[in-house]
Amino acid sequence: MSLSVVSDAVLHEQRRLAALHEYRLLDAPADDELEAVVRVAAMVAGVPTATLNLIDEHRQCQLTTTGFAGCDSARSDSMCAIRFETGKFTYIPDASLDPTYAPNPWVTGALGNVRFYASAPLVTPEGHALGSLCVFDVVPGVLDNAQIARLQDLAGVILALFERRRQSRINAELAIQAERSKKFTDTVLEAIDVAVVAADQRGRSRLFNRAAREWLGMAAAEAEPAADRYTLLAADGATPLPPDRAPLHRALHSGGFDASELIVRRTGVDDRQVTATGRPLTARDGTPLGAVVALHDVTADRTHRRALERAHAELAERGEQLAATVAELRRSNTELEQFAGVVSHDLVAPLGVVSGYLELIADVHEADLDEQSTAWIEKALSATMRMRRLIEALLSYARAGNAPYRPQPTDLAEILEQVQLDLRTAIADSGTELTIAPLPTVDGDPTLLRQLLQNLVGNAIKYRDPARPCRVAIAAVPDGDRYTVTVADNGIGIPPEHRDRIFDMFARVDGTAAHGHGIGLSTCERIVDRHGGRIRVADRPGPGTTITFTLPAVG
Ligand code: ADP
Q: Do the Cβ atoms of 175 and 182 come closer than 8 Å?
């Protein structure tokens, strides 16, 4: 026997057993119908005993018997097992005389004393032999052709009954599956916050999920929402939707649509703004079944969107106002600067004349003047000096805004050298110790930067603390595409509450009025502004002031 024949036989037997188990007959009670068929078989054969045998892998199971008590026995002992797989009807008038059946324990007396034996195999439509319908007697007997034909009919009936049992089992399983899957779908539909409404082809509403029931004000038990309980409106919130524009109607009669916006209104409840998506439902073969609509609540989205639109509009309006204010400010600033420039210029000349004549009087009439007159002349001269300084400060403020801006690579170390020269008297008189860290080359206007540093170092000296030697440190650190420059002193400091307003025009800290006019830092801010930078008073621990400002790096 070749290997392939063996494996074919094994495969065949596996399939046969699978078919047998698929019917789930073994170890299950036979029903009344099967018992009746076995009884009829005994009667047809004219014998007292008949059995319905099923052949398992190792045993013969007598599913139902008549005339004797059935039992399970080994497959190797079974008379039916000898030929049932041939699919042919077996008829042995006296088994004790048949060489194949005579040694069988059912014949020898070990299990029984069978003499007459006939069996109709039970073969499925797929060709799997499950067992046989067997009639037998302890005495020899005969069968005519009609009896054989009727016994074969009964075997067919038995298979039909098997098949019916199998089908009803499958149907029950399918029903359970369908029930489970329906439960799952129902749970999903109830859980989601999208309202789903479906109707059959005639437009009768069939399904409202939890969200739909809530939105339309339906009680759980209600099949249909009461028409007076809600209104559907167009997205404008004012125009009621005519019935033929209702989403379900549209989906049923004019095909699918996407994200159509509408409003669901109910008394006593806030309007709900929704987007509706509708689809007609069709069976696989194209038969129309109805339509489904999904409604998505976009109330919050739309509220946000409206708030955003309002904010945008407000911002745009404010932007316009701001632009107008800036333009106005620019215009008045330019006018002011022109005014300051002209006035300062026209004041300097007469002031020069006044102080010139005062000095002349003091020189020429030195001998004639009494002490009182000399003191008055000195006071007048110092007043003109103060006025000159104010005018110079105004002029330099005007220049800082008006002078042409000519940025170029400017070495801050060189600028500092010039500043030291400009302030040499003040530095020497105050005994100021300047510490200058290595400074970078920046992209700036040298004239304006000189004015800037002169003001800041000048202030550091001006507002020194008489209680300690004046120290001023200048340093710069790179910061991306710019440098942050620091001018730090150990002077009297600026109280924190003044730090924000100190760059305003004419702003001074109380008690320092005698030293200046409050124009220097405004001028500094202008210069830094023109370089696209920022100037501020830094917070620092301990006494003194640190001013920082940014300047663009070269390149
Ligand atoms: P001015 O020095 O001409 O008054 P500024 O605009 O330069 O004007 O300065 C404004 C005020 O800021 C000054 O009156 C002074 O009170 C304060 N201030 C500026 N720099 C310093 C500094 N380095 N230390 C202490 N106070 C300062």
A: no
